[in-house]
Amino acid sequence: MLIGALEAGGTKMVCSIGNPQGGVLQRASFPTLTPDVTVPQIVDFIGKFDVKALGIGSFGPLDLNPASPTYGSITKTPKKEWIQYPLMAALKDALGVPTGIDTDVNAAALAEYTMGAGKGRGSLLYVTVGTGIGGGLVIDGKVVHGLVHPEMGHMLLAPQEGDSMPDGVCPYHRHCLEGLASGPAIEKRWGLSAKLMTEDHPAWELEATYLAQMCVNMIVTVSPEVIVLGGGVMQQMHLFPKIRERVLKLLGGYVSSPSITPEGIDGYIVPPALGVNSGVIGALLLGAQALEKADACMDSHFHPPVILAVTYDAQCAWTREGDGKNHGEIDAALCAMQMMLQAAELGLGTTYVGMFSPEKLLASFPEMAGCTPIALLTLGYPAEGAHPARLHTQRKPLEDLVQYL
Ligand code: ADP
Ligand code: ZN
């Protein structure tokens, strides 16, 4: 099965075609110009393949509240044409497949958690140190979203004595992590590109101190089981021992864990196991998750290409005056029946699924809020040899069913 993946960046859009396990088969990249130019290029490329879902890891900030009418839109960005652009809705509509979206760093965090440095662990923090600094936190397989989404790059740090630029470069905050420790911050402070600095440059001592402060703040706040540090700046591998040493010192022996010891910390603060592939793997996983969202609400798994959810809105349905009976449920069931007949007429297979969890469905699709789900109709060509469950063919004799009064 093919899944489409989009790594949406400020300079380029990388489209990949892969499988739900994170394997990549095809790739194409387009410069990020305006949505008018770039989105059709993405749609053209991915649309050539029979993808069953799409996953997007995007630059942000994004609206990631599934109940919001602008869910999946880019909110703020220095790229004017992309402000408030409904990236997810545009691609979902054009490609017509279930689509999942998260920030680029959250996608990478999910990938590292699932099949990288976090394999077998219960939680993972991923922080990328590059042009900006971003962080993603995964706990029990779920990427943490909150009020909006975490912006760990902007946590406030204690500026160090002797730092010639103690306020940092962030236009929004004084002495935040990104302002003090991003690639551009290093460059501005020392007047030299981070890429060109030798290992003995004093920049790295300061850099390690700020990144260690961040690690400590996160350890005492969310206690992640592993911390992955990636991004361009972390290509400087000598930063790792410097950061680890400072983390131990700053924690002062307060946190008791085998990971927070001179022996254990080498396996605790680590580089990404997936390298530069974490973004695309994360997007593929988001696509696979989007595909499973409706299926996961049912007790039997049909994995059909389309699932119709039949719901009713009790506020709109007719209510019988005498006994106050609301007919929403009856009307919805009648509609479901018509839909099944229509599907059969089109030569498609379908089944009326009543065995599902309405709570799970409403939690997965907050768009349905206010409606009562009645049935899920799976829709597609049945697998070869598929047959109805045994009870479906049981028939009662007419005499048992019809009573003449
Ligand atoms: P982006 O964050 O733009 O997606 P990167 O993660 O590569 O991309 O970050 C770019 C920043 O990282 C630049 O400021 C650059 O100076 C710095 N950088 C890139 N490679 C290295 C390196 N090998 N050593 C130190 N700094 C680097
Ligand atoms: Zn900031």
The counted number of beta strands is 13
If helices are DSSP runs of H or I spanning 4 or more residues, what is the number of helices?
11
Strand content: 15-25%
Work out the radius of gyration: 26 Å
Question: Which small-molecule ligands are present, each listed once?
Answer: adenosine-5'-diphosphate, zinc ion
| Anisotropy-based shape | elongated
Q: H/E order of the elements?
A: EEEHEHEHEEEHHHEHEHEHEHEH
| Residues in helix, % | 25-40%
| SSE class | alpha/beta
Describe this structure in words.
The chain has eleven helices and 13 strands. With 405 residues, the chain is an alpha/beta fold. The strands form three sheets. The protein has a five-stranded mixed beta sheet. A five-stranded mixed beta sheet has the order 8-7-6-9-10, with helices on both faces. It is elongated. The protein binds adenosine-5'-diphosphate and zinc ion. The site of adenosine-5'-diphosphate (ADP) has 13 residues, from helix 5.
Summarize the structure.
By secondary structure, this protein is of the alpha/beta class. It has helices at 35-47, 87-95, 104-115, 177-181, 183-190, 203-222, 239-251, 278-295, 328-345, 358-364, 398-401; strands spanning 2-8, 12-18, 24-31, 51-58, 99-103, 123-129, 133-139, 142-143, 227-230, 269-270, 306-312, 349-353, 372-380.
